[in-house]
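An example makes the point: we print one protein in full, the chain in one-letter code, the fold tokenised, without further comment:
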Amino acid sequence: MGRLAAIFGCSGPRLTPREAAFFRDAEPWGFILFQRNVEDAAQVRRLVENLRDAAGYAAPVLIDQEGGRVARLLPPRWTGWRNALDWLEGMPEAARPELMRLRYRIIGQELRDLGIDVNCAPMVDVAQPQTHPAIRERCYGVAPDAVAAAGAAVAEGLLAAGVLPVLKHIPGHGRPSADSHEELPQVDTPLEELEAIDFAPFRALNHLPLGMTAHVRMTALDAKRPVTLSAPAMAHIRESIGFDGALMSDDLSMGALGGPMGARVAAAHAAGCDLSLHCNGKPEEMEAIA
């Protein structure tokens, strides 16, 4: 079939024969792991090896290991962390970037030990009073400059451990009060304000190699479509924000997007996504993408 511009999950801690055969044929760009895929360190190492064997090359293996609310590797086997916003609260502002660099240096080392080489962080969405808890608890702060500094430190810590960072959620998911896992959030904020606050940390980190889109409809960029499916929004990410790395969709199986899975991936690629991320491991949906 040739290399597929997709990142897939799998259903459990071990590959099923159906999954192995599908991955062998589809040759996806990479894979992503979730808590359902994790039992212990030896098992994760075997799964990572088996995924790469099925793909037929050293495919990138991703994970969302932020610590706190979003963590796939849990204590006591791996280091536990508080949500970033709570963890940083009360710490001297000047020390926060270094603390984040050290936090993600530790996380990165734990990932490399398992053979995982991409982490979906930093998340530089700027927290607002109305931000949905699914995002707000994971934010690094409420000021764009401070968020950008913390995000740069996260990337540095991961890279020092040999793990590629993923900048998310471009161009910003900090403003909505809705959860894109369940529904499509809409932001009606004027472009000038978005540029000054929401987009600023992404512009500061536009040199990072990988990015992930936001399933948010920003009417200042496109009144009809969410960023992930919007050619005008993608053009703004590339031209105004200046991000020129590989751009992946957020999970295409999330509730923010509607329609058949094949149509979702076609629309994302037509808009300008380089990679389609599909996380739930459902074989019928992966086969529709392929």
The chain has a mean pLDDT of 96. The radius of gyration is 18 Å. DSSP finds eleven helices and ten strands in the chain.
